[in-house]
Amino acid sequence: MKYLKTLSIVFIFAIGLQAQGISLTGYARNYMGVLLKGDHNYAIIQNTFNLNVEKTGDKIAFKVNPYMYQYPNMNPELGLREAYLDMYFSSVDVRVGKQQIIWGKADGVFITDIVSPKDLTEFLLRDFDEIRMGITSVKADYYIGDNTLEMVWIPTFTPTKFAPEGSIWRPAMPAFPVKPVIDRSREEVQPNLDNSEFFAKFSALTEYIDFEVMGGYAWDDDPTMHVVKHMDFSNPQHPVLTGITVYPEHHRLTIGGGSFSTTLGPIVLRGEGAYYQGKYFNTNDPRAKESVVKKDYLHYLLGIDYTLMDWHLSGQFIQQAILDYDDFIQNDQYSNMATFLATKDYLNETLNLSFFMYYDFNNEASLIRPKVTYDLADAFEILVGANIFTGTEGMFGQFHDNSMVYTKLKYSF
Amino acid sequence: MKYKLSLLALLTFAFVINAFAQDKLTGLQVMEKVYNRPTGNDMEATLIMTLINSNGDKRVREIKQFIRDFGKVEKKIMFFVKPADVRNTSFMNWSYDDPNKDDDQWIYLPALKKVKRISSDSKGDYFMGSDFTYDDLGDRKPTDDNHKILREEKLNGEDCYVIESTPKDPDYMYSKTVTWVVKGKWIGLKKEFYDEDGEYLKTLTIQKYDKIKGYWIITKTMMDNVQKNHKTIMELKDVKIDTGIPARMFTERMMKRGL
After folding, report:
1. How much is the ipTM here?
2. Which of A207, A310, A378 lies closest to B60 in CB terms?
3. Higher-confidence residue: A117 or B137?
4. Do B119 and A305 touch (CB under 8 A)?
5. Predicted TM-score of the model (pTM)
6. CATH architecture, domain B28-257
7. Separation between Cα atoms, residue B27 and residue B12, nearest integer Å
8. pLDDT digits (tens, 9 = 90+) for B124-180
9. Which residues contact A386 (CB under 8 A, 6 or more apart)?
10. Residues in chain B within 8 Å Cβ distance of A348
């Protein structure tokens, strides 16, 4: 009832705003999915209402983006994806408030695109604007011709949002010899000035190449699992493991990187890379305190986009390399992944076929996403698709029981 | 005196030759006059495209566009207004005078919140599901085709050259086009397109053109694809010429900010 009241207030407020020349856009969507394995449980039944309230002027602008996810027999989930104010000066734009900040040239892969944390409530299956969480921040863009210097200050840290306990998208915990106790007392990063995050990016858009150079002093969005083993040494010859406590904890990360995009005739060539300093990895080294070790790593990508017989094709190869590696580290030294996209329009762009795939070479696992989208009328879209997980291990393989087919109906206004 | 008369005769002869040469333009010269027809230094307009399928169902796309000629490069930026699901998408094109240099193109997708560079190689792609390809919208350079004047005839009361254009690239999507060009105004009043197999594909007709600030501006066209039984009507509204659109309009900043 409380949610209905809130929603009613939003509606009444919105109608009043429209009268003031404020633009109201958004969509209503129904999304239903069923698992292919087992008893064909529903993977999702969701109704979504998304509203963009905006006003743009020459000197100032604002946007508020409330959304609501409604699930059967549950309280609706209400939130603000973005809520910001813009100030435009002659060569500087300043945006203050909750906002999504997207960097880099990669598609579907997060290398320098680490300013906005991710919402992985449904793993990577949501639309990208729903995966990137808005963060309250101050962003200033200084423009020099076709070059831009962007500075971002994020006063409080927001971590990755994982699927809740009980969800089919909850990531698998590593195997422990005894059931661990999760102690979240070290997980929170206190909201104070010292704990804020800073990012800077210089970007250029030229007739030959587009490029970005970025740096960040941030927090690792994903917590490191510090493992404390409790041993019974009453018999020193045979110590016994009596329990394990896992402390999720976020650590500081320093990142430097860049990306580029250029055309070589019919091909668009894209690249992106970043050096991460101070990442904590889990290790089996018995000497390591709390089973973690601090290492630097590189994460980079090369991709091409090409059109063949009206099919728009795109491929990316991604590698992550841990520097100063030792064999105790639980992650592989090199993690290799690829993405492939093929998409084609038919019937005057009212029908679209699309095939997207992530492939994890280390675990021989993949996520395959075919879909067909048909525009029944302007701004009314019917989508039928599937998410197929192959393999058994790793980022994708862990969800091998979650392969699903789904439909989405969406009306934009 | 004799010398003066000879000079006069020579000048007269040169004038006649020149006039004769002007009268007997080549097909390429005619098409270059169409391509280079002055349309002002900059233009702002609302483009409304109505797509009509074989059942008569209509879909409407609305775009706000800005174009400015910077000398060696012409820059264009388009902001998509309708339908609602593509609102705030923007597209920018930099087209160079150098015939050896491809256009640079970028698209901003609000769902991805980033500007993506795209290849301009696919000029045969259809624009927003319409019956117009990017080339049909005026991006194709006259030097990409061989042109010959087939005949001269009247169309809609206007004296026209009828020009047949065949692509230099044998793999191009059209085997030939035939254009009716209005003499003096250098407007392609009608154009027939033939597919790769030489079959009649579609016809472009100019339904309205206006003189705005002294320039002939085409304000309403229709492309009728007879093979697909699909039509697109393209209309320019609120046309403003030479208002001094600032250079900063054609930047990544504006692509992201939108209208």
Report:
1. 0.90
2. A378
3. A117
4. yes
5. 0.89
6. Clam (2.50)
7. 27
8. 788 888 999 988 887 688 999 999 999 999 999 999 999 999 999 988 999 999 999
9. A368, A369, A370, A371, A403, A404, A405, A406
10. 51, 53, 126, 129-131, 228, 230
**Residues B219 and B233 sit within 8 Å (Cβ to Cβ):** no
**CB contacts, 8 Å: B130 with chain A:** 348
Mutate to test the interface with A, among B86, B101, B121 (most CBs of A within 10 A): B121
CA nearest B93 in A: which residue?
A: A207
Q: For B83-114, b where at least 16 C-beta lie within 10 A, e where not — what string?
A: bbbbbbbbbbbbbeeeeeebbbbbbbebebbb
* Cβ contacts of A267 on chain B, cutoff 8 Å: 119
Of the candidates B166, B173, B136, B138, the residue with the CA atom closest to the CA atom of residue B150: B166
CA distance A263 to chain B (A): 6
A128, B125: Cβ pair inside 8 Å?
A: no
- SS3 assignment, position B154: strand
Q: For chain B, state the CA radius of gyration.
A: 21
Tell me the C-alpha distance between B206 and B183, whole Å: 15
Domain boundaries, chain B: 28-257
Percent of chain B past pLDDT 70, that is, above it, reads: 90
Cα(A113)–Cα(B112) distance, rounded to whole angstroms?
Answer: 11
Q: How far apart are CA B37 and CA B186, in angstroms?
A: 7
pLDDT, residue B6, reads 55
* CB burial of residue A57 (10 Å; 0-12, 13-18, 19+): exposed
A80 to chain B, closest Cα gap in Å: 16
pLDDT on residue B119: 87
Residue A396 and residue A366 in contact, taking contact as beta carbons nearer than 8 Å: yes
Longest Cα separation, chain B: 81
Residue B2: predicted pLDDT: 47
Concatenate the DSSP letters of all residues of A9-76 into one string: HHHHHHHHHHHTT-EEEEEEEEEEEEESSTT--EEEEEEEEEEEEEEE-SSEEEEEEEEEEE-TTSPP
**What is the DSSP-derived secondary structure letter of residue A331?**
S
List of chain A residues whose C-beta atoms are within 8 Å of the C-beta of residue B59: 350, 377-378
> Encoding tokens for residue B66?
């800005």
How confident is the model over A37-88, as pLDDT tens digits?
999 999 999 999 999 999 999 899 999 999 999 999 999 999 999 999 999 9
CB contact under 8 A, B53 and A348: yes
In contact, A51 and A67? CB cutoff 8 Å: yes
User: Which run of H or E residues covers position B20?
Assistant: helix B2-23
Mean pLDDT of A22-48: 96
Q: What's the mean pLDDT in B230-248?
A: 96
Q: Is the pLDDT of residue B19 over 50?
A: no
Please determine, for residue B9, whether its predicted confidence score (pLDDT) is greater than 60.
no
The proportion of chain B whose per-residue pLDDT surpasses 90, expressed as a percent, equals 73
Residues 347-386 of A with CB under 8 A from B: 348-350, 377-379, 381
- CB atoms near residue B2 (< 10 Å): 6
Q: Which of A18-27, A53-62, A361-370 has the lowest mean pLDDT?
A: A18-27
Q: What is the pLDDT of residue B136?
A: 86
User: B residues 86-125 near A, CB within 8 Å?
Assistant: 87, 94, 96, 102, 104, 106, 110-122, 125
In whole angstroms, give the CA distance from residue A298 to residue A149: 24
